[in-house]
C-alpha cells in the first residue's frame, strides 16, 4: 500500500502593513474598476454577433475569468494574513521584516558556510542577483562579483515579495538561510560567500486614528 504524503505547507501568512494595504488596494481596484469595465467590454463584444469567432469577446471573457480568480484569491488570502508591525524583541538577529545588508567577501569557501540550494534560490528569486557596487551602480549579477559588492533587501511575506524592488520572500531559500543570523555571519548565495554586515528594523508608528 502506497504511503500517503503529507500535504505541502502553504505560503507563510505574514505580511507587512505596507504589503497588506497594497493587497487591499488591489482588491478594491479590481472589484470596483477593473471588473465592471471588463463586464461592459464583454457585453459590447457579445452584441456584435457570432461569439465563437469574436476575438474581442473571447479575450474579454478570458480576462474576466483571470480577474475573478484574482479577486477570489485576494478575498480569501486577506482573511488569512497576519500583519506584522512591531520589530522582534531581539533586534540583533534576522527575523521577518528585517532590512539586511550583505557584502561579498573572499575567504571561506561557499561549501563551508552552508550553501542554501542555489538552484532554488535562482528559481524563486531570478532577479535577486542584482548587486550594488561601491560606486553605486547596479550590476546584473552575471559572472563572479568582486569582493565588496553589496546586496540590500527586506524579508517580507510571499504575497508582497519583489526581488527587483529589494523585497525577498520569507519562504525563499535565501531568506531561510538568513533567519536568526547575527551581524558578522557568513552565508552562501549563488555559490558565493557573503557577510551579513547590517540588520535594521523599521520603527513602528501607531496609527493616528480618531
Question: What would your notes on this structure say?
Answer:
Helices cover 33% and strands 19% of the residues. With 210 residues, the protein is of the alpha/beta class. It folds into two domains: 71 residues, Transcription elongation factor, GreA/GreB, N-terminal domain (Helix Hairpins, Orthogonal Bundle), CATH 1.10.287.180; 102 residues, no CATH class. A five-stranded mixed sheet has the order 7-6-3-9-8. α1 packs antiparallel against α2. It is elongated and about 70 Å long. 21% of the residues are buried. The N terminus is likely disordered.
Can you list the strand order of the major beta sheet?
Answer: 7-6-3-9-8
> Which regions contain 5 or more consecutive residues with pLDDT less than 50?
1-8, 114-143
Mean pLDDT comes to: 80
Give me the Rg, rounded: 22 Å
Please tell me what the overall shape is.
elongated
The helix-strand sequence is EHHEEHEEEEHEE
Pick out its properties.
disordered N terminus; 210 residues; 4 helices; 5-stranded mixed beta sheet; alpha/beta; Helix Hairpins; 2 domains; two-stranded parallel ribbon
Could you provide a short overview of the structure?
This protein is of the alpha/beta class. The protein has helices spanning 17-46, 55-80, 118-124, 173-178, and strands at residues 14-16, 82-84, 99-104, 131-132, 138-139, 150-156, 167-169, 186-189, 192-200.
Amino acid at each position: 500500500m502506497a504511503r500517503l504524503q503529507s500535504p505541502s505547507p502553504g505560503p507563510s501568512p505574514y505580511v507587512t502593513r505596507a504589503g497588506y494595504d497594497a493587497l487591499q488596494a488591489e482588491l478594491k481596484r479590481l472589484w470596483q474598476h477593473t471588473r465592471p469595465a471588463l463586464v461592459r467590454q464583454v457585453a459590447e463584444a457579445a452584441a456584435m454577433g457570432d461569439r465563437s469567432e469574436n476575438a474581442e469577446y473571447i479575450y474579454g471573457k478570458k480576462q474576466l475569468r483571470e480577474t475573478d480568480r484574482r479577486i477570489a484569491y485576494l478575498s480569501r488570502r486577506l482573511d488569512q494574513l497576519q500583519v506584522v508591525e512591531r520589530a522582534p524583541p531581539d533586534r540583533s538577529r534576522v527575523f521577518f521584516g528585517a532590512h539586511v545588508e550583505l557584502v561579498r567577501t573572499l575567504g571561506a569557501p561557499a561549501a563551508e558556510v552552508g550553501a542554501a540550494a542555489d538552484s532554488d534560490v535562482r528559481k524563486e528569486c531570478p532577479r535577486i542577483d542584482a548587486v550594488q557596487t561601491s560606486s553605486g551602480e547596479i550590476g546584473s549579477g552575471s559572472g563572479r562579483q568582486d569582493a565588496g559588492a553589496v546586496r540590500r533587501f527586506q524579508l517580507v511575506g510571499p504575497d508582497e515579495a519583489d526581488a527587483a524592488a529589494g523585497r525577498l520572500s520569507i519562504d525563499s531559500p535565501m531568506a531561510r538561510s538568513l533567519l536568526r543570523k547575527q551581524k558578522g555571519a557568513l552565508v552562501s548565495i549563488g555559490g558565493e560567500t557573503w557577510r551579513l554586515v547590517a540588520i535594521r528594523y523599521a520603527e513602528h508608528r501607531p496609527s493616528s486614528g480618531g
